[in-house]
Amino acid sequence: MKNSSQKQEVLLLAVNGLCSLATVLAGTFLNVYLWKSRQDFSMVGWFTVAQQLAVGLSFWLAGKWVKEHNKMNALRLGLAVSGLFYLLVLWLGNRAVNYIWPLGLILGIAIGLFWLAFNIVYFEITDAGNRDFFNGWMGLLGSFTGIVGPWVSGWIITALHGERGYRLVFILSLSIYGVAVGLSFFLKKRKSEGAYLWKEPWRELHRKGSAWRPTAAALVFQGLREGVFSFLIGLLVYIAAKEESKLGQFALITSAVSLVSYYAAGKWFKPRLRSGGMLAGGILLIAVITPLLWRVSYGTLLIMGIGTSLFLPLYMLPMTSSSFDLMGESKESVGKRVELVVLRELCLMTGKILGVFVFIAMLSVNESPRVITLLMLLLGAAPLGSWLTLHRLLKRKAEESLL
Fold it and tell me: 3-state DSSP call for residue 391?
């Protein structure tokens, strides 16, 4: 039984790795592709808003399908819709910037369906004892694909001089999504369990003394940073370097550092260290942004990228593990795992959209590099908000782990 479970873990990691590779191959340069057609930060911001709205809604609406029917089909459909998205981008070409909202919604639906199903299966085949280890391996795979994918994409786009290169990269990404769909059929069908409770995320937040209250606030803070940083860093690197191969090089270097840091964190980062590690990680993530106060260049962005890759696991592993541990606290919470995964994603979505709204509002007044840097410092301080809301819960969990 244990060997069967381990095989499922490996298969799930493989599907995740392929999805990650397909995403970074094309996704690293997707915003650059849009930017080259229309140099407008707000346009890219609204594309992100459309994605996040669709992610949150697809999590909530598809929760019934995932809980009561076949969650593996939701995972496969998410991969297939990702492929459809890149088919549309290939078809539209430079006209894609005229369809920011529908394209963002389609990509968000794909992301929502895949990650809702993935998170549920991930929860079912891991437990509190091996979750940090599994997260470490997910981080390792993400880093490895981040090393290979963007460098290959950057090289292809540069070698084929733009549009032809982008088309080949999008076709490669589409093909890898197809392989991931095929591999997913080797994952066991998971049994459905109970009726889906539409209002449970809101009920949980209104429940007095619920540990999800501070966790939800911490997730909103996490989203504040992620929503903007997910697209802004790559754009700034491209604008500073003026060529896709440099962005590929940036991703290669930072992902290589991430590979080492996630490996180390997965091996040595224990539950009792989560609170202190998260605080240290939050402070260091702010510190690595400060070189941009002097100058926004490829060099200073690379310093920030390397620093972020080094210290992000200190913040992300406690954030990921703590929320999933809450789902396994009792038989009741295990039975509501789908609803709790939906709650987790809705909180992240809220933070991401708020962060992007702040970004769009600020840049509508002033688009200078100085304002962008100050905005990055402001949003980059959000991990400290996560720690402030979560540290008591983390300490309590650490004490319980020693008993």
Answer: helix
Q: Please report whether residue 194 resides in a domain.
A: no
Report if residue 228 sits inside a domain: yes
In this prediction, residue 361 has a pLDDT band, given cuts at 50, 70 and 90, of: very high
Dmax (CA) for the chain in angstroms is 61
pTM of the model: 0.86
Contact assessment for residue 26 and residue 85, using Cβ atoms and an 8 Å cutoff: no
3 falls in which pLDDT band (50, 70, 90)?
low
For 9, 108, 120, 396, the CA distances from 138, given in Å and listed in that order, are 11, 21, 15, 26
- Please report whether residue 225 resides in a domain: yes
Residues 71-79: what's their mean pLDDT? 86
Sign of the Cα torsion 206, 334, 386, 210 reads positive
Instruction: Identify residue 47 by its one-letter amino acid code.
Output: F
- What count of other Cβ atoms lies within 10 Å of the Cβ of residue 399? 11
Structural tokens at position 109: 């639906």
**Residue 195 within any structural domain of the chain:** no
- The CATH code of the domain that includes 160 is 1.20.1250.20
Domain residue limits at 381: 2-184+202-402
